[in-house]
Amino acid sequence: MASDGRRRISLGDFRHDSLSETSSTNSECLARARAGDGGNLWVTAERQTGGRGRRGRLWVSERGNLYASLLLIDPAPMERLGSLPLAVAVAVHQAIRRVLPPGAEPLEVKWPNDILIGRKKTCGILVEGEGLPDGRYALIVGIGINISEMPDNPLYPVTCLRQQGAAASPEELFAHLFAAMADVLDIWDQGRGVGEITARWREIACGVGEKITVNLPDRSISGQFAGIDDNGLLMLDTGAGRIMSIAAGDVFFG
């Protein structure tokens, strides 16, 4: 129990089911939620046959990398869920940092939650949610980390942990992720700890002060990346003293 009276989150609160192969760990978590699972469940797979990224993009999922999804049920009031992707990015960054050797290229987070090593993407995070018939809300955090395989990606430069000198197996990296996520979700505290999460995110952020282009569903906007606000929204300086707040989009540097 924390000093403020709230119940602390610990490693023992989470379960883990390891699969050899599945269509998608996110889809598996969602199916279990629909079947009544109580949440705090990790599902990992050695291979996915139908992995997906943001905006329905294919996520190539051959053996050798880490494919993991975390099912959370009613993790926070809806108005506080917007900061969860930042918390997830902080946890994933913490886990990868544990296995990178000294001298590796800089490990950073690109808004909101892409993990970059030397400005090259090594991890994708997909957060999905669905209201369940019984009134509960299922939220699934899908995480794919390039360990030994490095799929071609025409949108971004990519890398993998092996290329950066890390020797960790998917199982070892997941053990670090399992611990880091419990720690960070405890700090996030159902969205009440957003101040601490945004402070940690800013410490590992990539490209603050640089020129960026943000691709939105209907247009692209360029400006200077002015950081994030206290709720995790991207702040884009479009010139003439105008700051635009952006809740979702794909960021490109330069």
UniProtKB/TrEMBL annotation:
InterPro entries: aa-tRNA-synth_II/BPL/LPL, Biotin_CoA_COase_ligase, BPL_C, BPL_LPL_catalytic, Transcriptional_repressor_C
Reactions catalysed: biotin + L-lysyl-[protein] + ATP = N(6)-biotinyl-L-lysyl-[protein] + AMP + diphosphate + H(+)
Class of the enzyme per the UniProt entry, highest EC level: ligase
Pfam family of the protein (one): BPL_C
Keyword Cytoplasm part of the UniProt annotation: no
EC number in record: 6.3.4.15
PROSITE patterns registered for this protein in UniProt: BPL_LPL_CATALYTIC
Alphabetical UniProt keywords: ATP-binding, Biotin, Ligase, Nucleotide-binding
Protein name, as recorded: biotin--[biotin carboxyl-carrier protein] ligase
Lineage start: Bacteria, Pseudomonadati, Pseudomonadota, Alphaproteobacteria, Hyphomicrobiales
